[in-house]
Fold:
Amino acid sequence: AQTVTQSQPEMSVQEAETVTLSCTYDTSESDYYLFWYKQPPSRQMILVIRQEAYKQQNATENRFSVNFQKAAKSFSLKISDSQLGDAAMYFCAYRSKGLGGNEKLTFGTGTRLTIIP
Amino acid sequence: DTEVTQTPKHLVMGMTNKKSLKCEQHMGHRAMYWYKQKAKKPPELMFVYSYEKLSINESVPSRFSPECPNSSLLNLHLHALQPEDSALYLCASSQGLAGIYNEQFFGPGTRLTVL
Structure:
C-alpha cells in the first residue's frame, strides 16, 4: 500500500516570502499522480497543483511550483510571494493510475501554513 | 458551473435519529465520493460511486448508507450514529475514475455532530 508523509505539521512564512512544504511518499508503482490540495479555514478543499509521475518537468501554477524527485520519492511544494490568502492546511496526496480499487487518493497528514503579515 | 454543493452545512443529531446528507454537482461528472474528515486530520475515503453504481466501500459501518439516485446527486443516509461519528463529511466528484479524469472537486462539507 502507498503511504504519504508530511513531516512538517506547521509552517509559517512572512508575507511576500517563499516557503517550501515537504512531502515524501512510498510506492512500488512506476506511474501515478501526485497532488497538492489546499484547505482554507472555510473548509473547501481546492486542488493547487498536479504532477504526473512519468513527466520529468516539474508542474507550475502561477506562484505554486513543485520539486518532484521521483527517485527520492519526494514531492515538495514551493509557494512564492506568499499572500495572506495562502493560509490553509495543505495536503499532499497520491493516486495510482490504474483502476480496480486504485482510484482512491492517499493523503498525507497535512501541513498548516500561517502567513505572517 | 464548477461547483459541488452540500446540504446542510451543519447537522446535529441524536444517536436514535435518522438524517441524510446531500451532495450535488452539475459538471457532468460520473464519479462521486464521500469522505469523512476528523479535526486536524486528512480526509478518509468512505465510498466511491461510478456511473451511479457503488464502486468502492471502504469497510464503512452499515449505519452509513450511501445512495446515488442519479448522476448529479449523492446522498448519505445516517442512522443510529455514535458520538465518534462526529466529523466533517466531504463530498467530491470527478469526471471519471481513470487517468487525468480523476481530478476531484470537493464540496464545502457538512459538519456533523452526534449527541
